[in-house]
Amino acid sequence: MLNKELINKSIDFILQHLEDDISVDDVANHFYFSKFYFCRSFKAMTGESVYEFIKRMKLDQSAVEIKLEKEKPITNIGINYGYSSSNYSTAFQKHHNISPAKFRKSVDVTGMTSPFYPEGLSGFDTFEGYNSKIKMQELPDFFVIYERIIGNYIELKDNWFQFLDQYSDHIKVDTLMIERFYDDPAITSLNRCLCDICMTTDESCTLKNVTLVKGGKFAVYCFDGKIEDIFCTIQGIFSVWLPKSDYEMDGRCGLNIYREINKESGCVIMDICIPIR
After folding, report:
1. What is the tens place of the pLDDT at every residue in 163-203?
2. N or C: which end of the chain has fewer CB within 10 A?
């Protein structure tokens, strides 16, 4: 069986080529993997076949584009991910249980239900409210220890506490805790959310699970509150602020950089960082 680091590299390669006509053979050949052992190892680690993972990520990421780029024709978005106009609508409907056109209308909202508060609707702030708290910043690259999580978004807090306990010997005064998200939990199934939980470390670190998180230009929103309220704050920024701003997301992943974490109260101070151009 291939080890976790190699499977993570294959996931990175897939994510970098979602807009290409990428196949299982392409990934296996790129890394000189045996296709049989690669497919077997991938499913054992992720719970999905390579083909299922590629298809799901294409349909989930295309939905993110429909949500954020409200003026971009849906047909063009589907074509970017390798679908014809008719095939895309059918595949989207089957995966998301809604047509692309109806999905676009459904995300033009002023609030949404949070997985942490399923009994009620959490309202969004106004564009002006978000805009007043957002600053443009150039962030450096971060060399980090990381664990890749594919699972339930609601359990992310528990994953974090396990991660902090496991790597407690690497925590220093200036260590930053960083989340790197690859999808939108409001779109992706809660049990399939893909996220890296990270802590900054020295480049001399000899652990195998280290990587470089790319910096660059980000729109940074300072959040101060309960962990359970992070979800709707991020959704509001993406649903209200970003479409009305003069910025677009680029190909990098969004980052959550934690400045303070209080385990007892469940409150955090963090920077919600959206990669922009």
Report:
1. 999 999 999 999 999 999 999 988 998 889 999 999 999 99
2. C
Q: Return the closest-CA partner of residue 150 out of 186, 178, 183.
A: 183
CATH number for the domain harbouring residue 223: 3.20.80.10
The crossing angle, in degrees rounded to 10, of helices 85-96 and 50-68 is 100
Q: Are residues 88 and 214 in the same domain?
A: no
Structural contact between residues 54 and 95, judged by C-beta atoms closer than 8 angstroms: no
H helices, E strands: number in the chain: 11, 10
Quick: pLDDT tens for 128-176. 999 999 999 999 999 999 999 998 888 888 899 899 999 999 999 999 9
Q: Left if phi > 0, otherwise alpha if psi is -120 to 50, otherwise beta: which for 189? A: beta
65, 2, 71: which is closest to 39 by C-alpha?
Answer: 2
Residues 15 and 101 occupy one common structural domain: yes
Q: Is the pTM of this model over 0.85?
A: yes
How many domains are there within the chain? 2
How far apart are the C-alpha atoms of 139 and 131, rounded to whole Å?
A: 19
Alpha-carbon distance 198 to 213, whole Å?
9
- Residue 224: CB atoms within 10 Å: 11
Domain with 10, as residue range(s), is 4-106
User: Could you tell me where the DSSP H helices lie in the chain?
Assistant: 4-16, 24-30, 35-46, 50-68, 74-80, 85-96, 100-106, 127-131, 156-166, 230-236, 242-244
| Together in a domain, 218 and 99 | no
Q: Is residue 231 within 8 Å of 115, Cβ to Cβ?
A: yes
HSE at residue 180, side-chain half, CA atoms within 13 A, is 23
Write the single-letter amino acid at 26: D
Per-residue model confidence as pLDDT tens digits over 249-271: 887 899 999 999 888 888 999 99
- The length of the chain is 277
